[in-house]
Amino acid sequence: MAGAGVTTTGSPCGACKFLRRRCAAECVFAPYFCAEDGASQFAAIHKVFGASNAAKLLQQQQVVALQAQVAHARTQAQLGAATAMHPLLQQQLQQQAWQVAAAADQHDHQSMTSTQSSSGCYSGAHQRSDGSSLHGAEMYCGYGEQEEGSY
Questions:
Q1: In the prediction, which pLDDT does 21 show?
Q2: Coil vs helix vs strand at 140
Q3: I need a surface site. Which of 54, 64, 71, 99 has the fewest CB within 10 A?
């Protein structure tokens, strides 16, 4: 992990390459993030901790390796959690779509029955309370007592 820092060709260290800035001779990141593969390591650290916090922590050399491992583990865990949640969220979305469809059907059914019952009239093939049914053009409007054969 400890790289050459600023190379003889003048290429920036991995951190400065990631931050797109000139790498000064006194760059705090240069000893830890080489020009070749340091940018990817610094990217993970920068994403989790930020450049300023990383610079403060670099004062302790032992922390660098652990910091990179923790940053990598955190980003992988976030990606894994999001990927694992996708099927669950799809299932919940499907269940909610079914609930909406069922509620819409129930609402339509209740609208039709409340429209028919609010007028007190019904027509067509409906069943009476005794099990027999009314057919065709027979109609009953519930104004008063219903007598046998009066519909």
A1: 92
A2: strand
A3: 99
